[in-house]
């Protein structure tokens, strides 16, 4: 800046020397020179603002990369608890960033260490790792191949590809239900006909077998997955019945066998679902969990028999988020579990989730607040701001005036107080 100011000063001195011998400088020339000077200052200010924006963006990128690296390092050397926390942080980071290059980078950078951690990690950490892989693929996956790649890694958690010197470890119920839920969550994003049938031909039989397990969470996860497979019309892909014919007569026989196989498999699954929808409570069963199972399988049964999907409405602020398909219901349930108490806030402010569910929240923001910058808003909402002090004084005055008045009148003032909070 010192060099620039010096150059500008020298230029000004040169201009004065040139005009010393002439006394006929018009006022219009002077005015034009002033305007050019002002424009120059404005351009300098724009340049400064642009440089500041670039610097802040670079700083943000650095923080994003540093946070991701720290979390990924936890997969290699961290305790099970640290791995769980790191997994959740990476998932939240992806959801917060939404679609874009950063989300894609999170997926590509995280996939190798995540895959390895799922093979060697403890049972307690695998659930968080599965959820993390599901979220970052859901947000950052660009094509079906990336999504199916993650689904394959999930499936191998309960169906590992074993070498001759490796002994299979039976996965626990919570790990199985977490895998099926995460796998189903990603299946909601897939066009059924883009799936590789060779990879999934045994999965329908496996999901059917899970309906007979003792673990209620496993049964519920399997029921949702089966409903989704029926909804996206991929029963043939998952049944193992579709095979390429060699000639016309073989094609007819193949179609007949396929039809009978699918019909028999569907009948078996419907029978299982019907039994679970009316299951009686056994010794030690939790009534709430039993009711959840019955309600879920009644919805699945109704869908299998009549084609009706459950309709769900969730209150978000002043609006309602509504779903009317198994695909959206599975997405909603998975994200609610992952975000926990932060779900409502994310649904109010996260544009990525607005796009996922086609949801537009009702925002109670005044026109004045719309015009404030982010820094002004922080000052505006600070407990020490002039406005908040004025609100406090007003509320104190209202409380004093309310003393001795009847309860009904006090209730009205109470409503006014809430409007200020």
Automatic annotation (TrEMBL):
> Which InterPro entries does the protein's record reference?
ARM-like, ARM-type_fold, IFRD, Interferon-rel_develop_reg_C, Interferon-rel_develop_reg_N
Q: What is this protein called?
A: Interferon-related developmental regulator N-terminal domain-containing protein
Family annotation (Gene3D superfamilies): Leucine-rich Repeat Variant
Using the UniProt annotation, give all residue ranges assigned to the region (Disordered).
1-42
Q: Where is the Interferon-related developmental regulator C-terminal domain?
A: 350-402
Q: Which SUPFAM superfamilies match?
A: ARM repeat
**Which family does the UniProt entry place this protein in?**
Belongs to the IFRD family.
* Positions of the Interferon-related developmental regulator N-terminal domain: 61-305
Comp. bias (Low complexity) = 22-31
């Amino acid at each position: 800046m010192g060099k620039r100011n010096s150059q500008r000063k020298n230029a000004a001195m040169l201009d004065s020397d040139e005009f010393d011998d002439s006394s006929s400088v018009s006022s219009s020339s002077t005015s034009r020179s002033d305007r050019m000077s002002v424009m120059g200052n404005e351009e300098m200010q724009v340049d400064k603002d642009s440089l500041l924006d670039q610097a802040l963006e670079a700083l943000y990128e650095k923080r994003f990369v540093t946070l991701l690296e720290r979390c990924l390092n936890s997969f290699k050397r961290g305790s099970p608890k640290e791995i769980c926390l790191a997994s959740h942080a990476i998932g939240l980071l992806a959801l917060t960033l939404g679609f874009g290059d950063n989300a894609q980078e999170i997926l590509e950078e995280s996939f190798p260490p995540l895959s390895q951690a799922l093979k060697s990690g403890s049972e307690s950490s695998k659930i968080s790792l599965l959820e993390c892989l599901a979220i970052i693929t859901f947000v950052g996956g660009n094509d079906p191949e990336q999504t199916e790649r993650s689904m394959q890694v999930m499936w191998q958690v309960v169906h590992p590809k074993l070498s001759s010197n490796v002994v299979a470890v039976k996965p626990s119920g919570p790990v199985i239900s977490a895998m099926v839920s995460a796998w189903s969550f990603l299946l909601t994003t897939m066009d059924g006909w883009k799936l590789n049938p060779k990879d999934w031909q045994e999965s329908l039989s496996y999901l059917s077998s899970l309906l007979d397990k003792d673990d209620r969470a496993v049964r519920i996860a399997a029921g949702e997955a089966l409903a989704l497979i029926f909804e996206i019309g991929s029963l043939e892909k998952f049944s193992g019945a579709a095979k390429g014919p060699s000639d016309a007569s073989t094609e007819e026989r193949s179609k007949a066998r396929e039809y009978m196989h699918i019909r028999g498999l569907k009948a078996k699954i419907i029978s299982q679902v019907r039994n679970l929808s009316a299951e009686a409570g056994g010794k030690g069963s939790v009534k709430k969990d039993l009711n959840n199972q019955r309600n879920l399988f009644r919805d699945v049964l109704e869908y299998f028999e009549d084609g009706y999907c459950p309709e769900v409405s969730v209150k978000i602020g002043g609006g309602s988020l509504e779903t009317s398909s198994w695909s959206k219901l599975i997405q909603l349930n998975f994200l609610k579990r992952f975000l926990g108490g932060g779900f409502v806030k994310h649904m109010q402010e996260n544009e990525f989730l607005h796009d996922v569910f086609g949801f537009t929240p009702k925002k109670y923001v005044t026109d004045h607040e719309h015009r404030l910058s982010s820094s002004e808003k922080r000052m505006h909402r600070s407990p020490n701001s002039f406005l908040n002090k004025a609100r406090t004084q007003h509320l104190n005055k209202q409380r004093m005036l309310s003393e001795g008045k009847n309860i009904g009148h006090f209730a009205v003032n109470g409503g006014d107080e809430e409007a200020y909070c």
